[in-house]
Amino acid sequence: MNIVVLLKQVPDTTEMKIDKERGTLIRTGVPTITNPDDLSGLEIALRLKEQNGAKITCVTMGPPQAESMLRELYAMGADECILISDGKFGGADTWATSNTLSAALSSIPFDLIIAGRQAIDGDTAQVGPQTAEKLNIPQITYVDEVIALTDKKIKVKKSLESTYEIIEADLPCLITTLSSAAKPRYMHVKKIHEAFAKEIRLITFNDIDIDPSIIGLKGSPTKVKKTFTKEVHKNCDVLVLEPRESARKIFETLLDNNYIGK
Amino acid sequence: MNFDLNATQALSLKLFKEFAEKEVQPIAAEIDEQERFPEETVAKMAEIGMMGIPFPIEEGGSGGDTLTYVMAVEELSRHCGTTGVILSAHTSLACNPIHSFGTEEQKEKYLIPLANGSKLGAFGLTEPNAGSDSAMQQTVAVNEGNHYRVNGSKIFITNGGYADLFIIFAMTDKSKGTRGISAFILEKGTEGFTIGKTEHKLGIKGSSTTELIFKDVLVSKENLLGQEGKGFKIAMNTLDGGRIGIAAQALGIAQGALDEAVKYTKERTQFGRSISSFQNSQFKIAELQTKIDAARLLTYRAACLKDKGAPFTTEAAMAKLYASDIAMESTRESIQLLGGYGYTREYPVERMYRDAKITEIYEGTSEVQKMVIAGSILK
């Protein structure tokens, strides 16, 4: 069983600040982390490997700095790590990214692809599903639990807002996982020492068969016209009322503004 | 001279920081309050390869170095001195002598399970009448052919109540003084070997500090560590390494207390301004961080010398002497910066203050460290 996990190195958005004048993110000095949903995907893969045996290949697309993330993934238990990196791939939106990923995946054996639901920097939740479409394989999104995995099929629990579905699909298949699906394990000290001796396979533009017009910034249909931070308007009405009257006022305000229905 | 961590050390440090923040900090106050040995943390450390950091993979370890191990003890102690000393006593005092002096069979049988964390280790040298004067061993081991018959007792043994394996010292020939001391590997549950009184302490309350009692304990000849009569040398060599671990513990406690003080002074407002804006706070913080960094450099230097295979006895003594002193100063001054709140259990600095004191006492008191340092200068 070959399991491919798609992961992305992202800025730690909890430490992110915004340049209000230019409307851009201030990336300098912001630590990078592995996208949390993706780590949950790796943890699911590692558990499946422990149960059934499998080879886990971690794949990321990004700048050369993403190597530091891949070393950590080795230290958590990945068998092979692949970095898809080339200046020509840079600035890609989700469509161009999934074009590149699906082309690169044609040279990587897989029975199951696991991607995180969405990345904390872009929050689109599009790359996983688009990649499945382009590979022409079934996809199950928002997976909270893998119930069973055989050589032929996968059965999962898919979480929806107030309910869940049990879905079975034929392999090969792509699933996207939620952070809640599995708490990622720590790295192992011994594996940290082994991680730096392992090879990271680099896939560049020349290694894949792809039309240059559908990759990178130029191949991205998304055009960012303007980025800005939402202004927060604080108009506070301070009312001093008796408790009963306060409750009534709060209720009426919520009702009038359609926060609650009649 | 190079002050940069290599890639493996840097990534290991990242792991230790994350582990200590998520697994150690949340229960630190509770294990202190309840005087509870954190068995669950030890199990988690074993799972990620922290119980044998500086030993080769074929000996059950993680293939790291002393500096990586030191950073692990430091990061644990930053949040919990108890957890720091559990790892330090296990690694430096139990695993290390077997790694350095054990036979292949002893390594196979005892070091592998210790270093992979499936067993916990302890070290028994101190006796009621053999503290700093550790040559005054009254525990005796009589050679009876295939085994030794051990009688006596040990006190203040770290990890005592929870360890599976013990490195113990006993007189095999009283007439030879220190050259009559031998070291043995003793398994929990051996007939006649019992755990005595558990100490209630000022600090590191979650760590298990006990008495060991030997009543006609038969120890097989295969469990003699090193040669007969070489026990004192083994003990001293082991304590040299142990002192780097305790220096790291002290360093972690010192940094942990200052971290709290920095956070608090930024949040606390008095006289209409943040107390971090007062020069008194600023100067105190500046002095403490400078001293902590100096302690860190001394500790890391001793670790790097050990890793190089160079002599490190004096440097380890300096590291422990200074780091334990700074642990006392940093915890005391951090309480002062927190004022009345610092004196309460609402904040962790009072615990850190109590935890710091032992670092001036065990594995050689500060006075013993000065004897070691002066001895090397005035020889």
Protein architecture, described:
The complex is a heterodimer of chains A (262) and B (379). Chain A is an alpha/beta fold. Chain A has one domain: Rossmann fold, CATH 3.40.50.620. Helices cover 26% and strands 26% of the residues of chain A. Chain A has 6 helices and 13 strands. Chain A has a 9-stranded mixed beta sheet, with helices on both faces. Chain A has a two-stranded antiparallel ribbon with strand order 2-5. In chain A, strand 3 and strand 4 form a beta hairpin. In chain A, helix 2 (67-76) packs across helix 5 (189-195) and helix 3 packs across helix 4. Chain A is globular and about 70 Å long. Chain A starts with a strand and ends in a 6-residue tail after the last helix. In chain B, helix 3 packs antiparallel against helix 4 (81-101). The mean pLDDT of chain B is 97. Chain B is globular and about 80 Å long. Chain B has 3 domains: 7-115, Acyl-CoA dehydrogenase/oxidase, N-terminal domain (Butyryl-Coa Dehydrogenase, subunit A, domain 1, Orthogonal Bundle), CATH 1.10.540; 121-229, Butyryl-CoA Dehydrogenase, subunit A, domain 2 (Beta Barrel), CATH 2.40.110.10; 233-377, Butyryl-CoA Dehydrogenase, subunit A, domain 3. Chain B is of the alpha+beta class. Chain A binds chain B through residues 71-72, 75, 185-196, and chain B through 7-8, 11-12, 15, 18-19, 47-50, 53, 57, 61-64, 68.
**Biggest sheet: strand arrangement of chain A:** 11-10-9-12-8-1-6-7-13
Strand content of chain B: 15-25%
The SSE order of chain B reads HHHHHEEEEEEEEHEEHHHH
Number of helices of chain B: 10
**CATH class assignment of chain A:** Alpha Beta
Share of residues in strands of chain A: 25-35%
Number of domains of chain B: 3
Largest interface in this structure: A-B, 15 and 18 residues
Named CATH architecture of the largest domain in chain B = Up-down Bundle
Oligomer, anyone? heterodimer
**What is the CATH architecture term of chain A?**
3-Layer(aba) Sandwich
Radius of gyration of chain A, rounded?
22 Å
Number of domains of chain A: 1
CATH superfamily of chain A: HUPs
Average of pLDDT of chain B: 97
Total strands of chain A: the figure is: 13
CATH class identity of the largest domain in chain B: Mainly Alpha
Q: Which class of secondary structure composition applies to the elements of chain B?
A: alpha+beta
Shape of chain A, please? globular
Largest sheet of chain B: 4 strands, mixed
